[in-house]
Fold this sequence. Notes:
mainly alpha
Amino acid sequence: MTAAKPSKRAAxxxxxxxxxxxxxxxxxxxxxxxQQALADATRALKAARAAMADEIVKAAKxxxxxxxxxxxxxxxxxxxxxxxxxxxxxxxxSRK
Length: 96
């Protein structure tokens, strides 16, 4: 006659090693989820940065002064960053 095997649930409740493995697996899964969330946020930031640069260039081409572009963007980018974006797009921000 064979003895009944204890259930896995009972084994983990009384087994510190099994509990540690379970905690480790949970933390590993959380890390993987966080890494995916970071990758998703990074992609969204890159897309938003490109869209903002496009809008800055459109505003500059429409004659909006650099200081006004800077103010309207909420000072997210410095005036120097705005200037560089415009130069890269071939837009002259010098006063006329």
